[in-house]
Amino acid sequence: MPLTEIRDLLLGGDAAGALARLNPLVARHPGEPECRYWLASALAALGAREAASEAMSNAITLHALTAAREMNADLAAAQSDGAYANRVATTLYGNNCVAMASVFWGMAISADHVDANTLVSYGLSLQHQGRIEEAIQVFRAAAETFPSPGVGQFLLFPHVFADGGDRRFADEARAWSKRYAPSGPPPRFANPPSAGRKLRIGYVAPDFSGSQLRQFVAPLFENHDPDAVEVFLYPADAATEAGWPAWVKVHAIGKLNDAQAVRLIRSHRIDVLNDLWGHTAGSRLPVFALRAAPVQAGWINFAQTTGLDEMDYVLHATSEGLPHARRDYTEKVWPIGPAFTAFRPAACRAEPTPTPALREGRVTFGSFNHPSKLSDGCVAAWAAAMRRTPGSRLLLKYRYYADAVLRRTTQARFAAHGIAPERIAFQGHSAGAEYLAAFGEMDLALDAWPAPGSTTTLEALSNGVPVLVLAGPELTLGGLYARSIVQAAGLDELVATDPDDFVEKAVALAADPQALDALRARVRPGFDAGPCCDEAGFTRRLEDEYRAMFDAWAARSRSASAA
Q1: Helices 98-110 and 82-94, packing angle to 10 deg
Q2: Residue 47 sits in which domain range?
Q3: pLDDT tens-digit map of 459-481
Q4: At what angle do helices 455-462 and 513-529 cross, to 10 degrees?
Q5: Global confidence as pTM
Q6: Do residues 34 and 62 touch, judged by C-beta distance below 8 A?
Q7: How many Å apart are CA 388 and CA 365, to the nearest integer?
Q8: Which domain CATH number covers 7?
Q9: What are 304-363's pLDDT values in tens digits?
Q10: Into how many domains does the chain fold?
C-alpha cells in the first residue's frame, strides 16, 4: 500500500490499520526516514510511547544523515573521527539546525570525543527540540563527569519543561546550592534604618542592556526615583551598560571572583540585592550564598527557586495561587502587585488589523514559543482544537524551525493526533517589518505548558494578538505567571482552567470570527493601559516593597541584638 494511503488511514483515525501496513513497509525500506516518521506517529497514536520514541529517534537520525550528505558532510569520517563530527555538529547548531546537530554530537560522543562542552552542547541540542528527558540524562552525565558550578546548572533548567517540573527543579536547585554555593559565615551588617534616607538597591546579571532583560529592566532603571533610592548595577562588563541614567552606578564584577565581588558589593552598603539571572549560564549565585547584602531577592529571568538558603525572597505577581507555589521554594515568595514585571513594547509595533480569519476564511492558531515548550500535553490539546476547527492551521515561528528535521518531527507529533502535516506552517527568525507582519497572520496565539511563554506572550499582546493560556487549580509557577500577564491586560476570558477547558475555549473563539475580531480590538488597548505598561506605577510599588523588605530585616536585626 502506498504511503499516502497509510497516511490517510492514520489521519482518519485508524492507527492500528496504518501500523499493520507500516511495519512491512519499513522492513522493505529501512533507510527511508519518511516511513519511520509515520511509524512513530502511528505508534504514538496507539499509546506505545517507548516504541514511538525509538521510531522517532531512528527517523531523526536517518533524516539528519540524508540532509547532511546533501550538504557534503563526510559521514564515514563522522563515524570514526569524533573531532570531525563535533565540528559538523557545531556548524549545524550555529545555523539553528538543532535536531541535525544532535545526531552528529551523538556520533562524536560515540567516537570518544567526550568533554564537558560536547556533552553540554549535545544536551542543549536535545532540549531545544523538546526532548526534555533525554536532555536531562545528558546533562546529568555531564555534571557527574565534569563537576563544576557552570556545568551543573545546565541540569536544572530543562526541568522547567518537564512534567512535575516545579518540584523536580526545586530538588535539583537545592542539590546544586548545597554542592556549589555553600553559605559562608553569617556577616554582620550595619545598614542604618531606612527612614529619612535613600535605600540602596543592587541588581546582578551578566548583561542588562544587551540581553533579554532590557525590555524588563529599562522601565525600572529609568523610572527609579533618584530622590528615594540609589541604584547599583553589577554586570560582567561595564561596557555593555551604556545609556542608563547618569545616576545609575555601574560596577563590573566579571573579572572578580565570588569573594571579591562580595567585598565590593558590601563596600557599597547595599540594602536590597536582586539577582535577575537565576540558574542560567553566567549567573553569580555564589555571590548571594556568601550574603553580599542584608536582603537578597531573585526575580525576572527566573520565577523558580534558587535553592539558596541565603536568598531571602523570590518576587512574584500577587496571586491567589501563591500559597500553593511556596512549597517549592527555599525563599519566601514576596508578592509585588498585579504585574510580575513592567514591560516596554518595542518602539515599532504591528498596525492594528482585523482578525485574519475575516479575510482568509480560515482560522490560524499560532505560537512563537521556543520548541522546547511544546510538551506532549500541549500538542495533544492544540491538535484537539484544530480537529474541531475545520480548515484551521497552526503557525509555529522560532529560529530553530530553520531545521527541516525539527519541522518534520513536529509534524509527526501532531499527525499522531490526526493533524495533517500541511496544516502546520513554520517560520524561522525574522526582524523588522517581516517579524511584525507575522502577528497579522495569527487569529489566536496558543500558550504552552508547563513552561508558558514570557516575552513571546507579552509581545503578542502588545501587538494586538489574543493569547489563550492555561492556569489550572493545581497551579504551576508557569501557570501563575501566564495568568498574571493575561489578567493584567483585562482578558480574564483567555485563562483556561485545565486542558479540556483550553480546547473548549480555543474552539469557541475560533467558531465566531466576528467575536474574535471584537476581542482582538480590546487586546492592545487593554495591555497598554494595564499594569505591565505602567512603568512609573510599577516602579513606585516595587520601591515600596524593597523598603518593606529592608525594614522587616532591620526589625529582626534589632530583636536579635536585644536578645
Answers
A1: 170
A2: 1-64
A3: 999 999 999 999 976 678 888 89
A4: 110
A5: 0.95
A6: no
A7: 13
A8: 1.25.40
A9: 899 999 999 999 998 766 655 567 889 998 999 999 999 999 889 988 899 999 999 999
A10: 4
